[in-house]
Amino acid sequence: MRLEEVFSGVAVAFEATGAAAMIIGFVIALVLGVRSLRRREGGRAAFSVLRNALGSAILLGLEILVAADLIRTITSKPSVEDALILGLIVLIRTVLSISIQIEIEGVLPWRRALLTSGGQLLGEAVRRDRAAQAERSG
User: Fold this and answer.
1) What are phi and psi of 104, to 5 degrees?
2) Cβ(15)–Cβ(68) under 8 Å?
3) According to the model, what pLDDT value does residue 31 have?
4) CA–CA dist 22, 15 (Å, integer)
5) Half-sphere exposure of residue 58, counting CA atoms within 13 Å on the CB side?
6) Which of 63, 65, 55 is CA-nearest to residue 106?
7) For 48-88, how does the pLDDT look when each residue is reduced to its tens digit (9 = 90+)?
8) Residue 86 in contact with residue 72, Cβ under 8 Å?
9) Whole-angstrom distance, CA of residue 64 vs CA of residue 19
10) What is residue 115's predicted lDDT score, i.e. its pLDDT?
11) DSSP character string of the chain
């Protein structure tokens, strides 16, 4: 097996992981939103939970897809056109990631002392949900 085939396979695996992160994150966001509604926190709170969790999942998926694009540069032919197309794709995904992060947190990413990844944000949403469940049952 050639090295190009290995890196191509790794890039495909990263792409599948990025897509899976968004799909699984959507399901988690939906569950968290429904749980928030069932706890009678109100529609606005449930929407906020759903929006933040879904945005976090999309952010995580986009970060993984950017990594896949960077890995794919190893396997691409070194032409200017390929490099420009790949650069444009990475730029678009990066701008989307930044805009989603601003939407979720309400703060420009470079104004924060510590950056938070999409996975951390999704984990925080799950922790808040578990704490609310424990509070309700305990």
Assistant:
1) -70, -50
2) yes
3) 93
4) 11
5) 17
6) 55
7) 888 889 988 998 998 899 889 888 877 777 778 877 888 88
8) yes
9) 9
10) 57
11) --HHHHHHHHHHHHHHHHHHHHHHHHHHHHHHHHHHHHTT--HHHHHHHHHHHHHHHHHHHHHHHHHHHHHHHHHS---HHHHHHHHHHHHHHHHHHHHHHHHHHSS-GGGSSS---HHHHHHHHHHHHHHHHHHHH-
> How would you class 65 by CB atoms within 10 Å of its CB: exposed for 0-12, middle for 13-18, buried for 19 or more?
buried
Look up residue 43 and give its two tokens.
Answer: 């529609």
Is it the case that residue 117 has pLDDT exceeding 80? no
Tallying the residues shown for the chain, one arrives at: 138
The residue whose two tokens read 């709170």 is: 45
Both tokens assigned to 66: 């950017």
Say how many domains are in the chain. 1
Locate 50 and state its tokens: 């759903």
Structural domain for 79, as ranges: 3-137
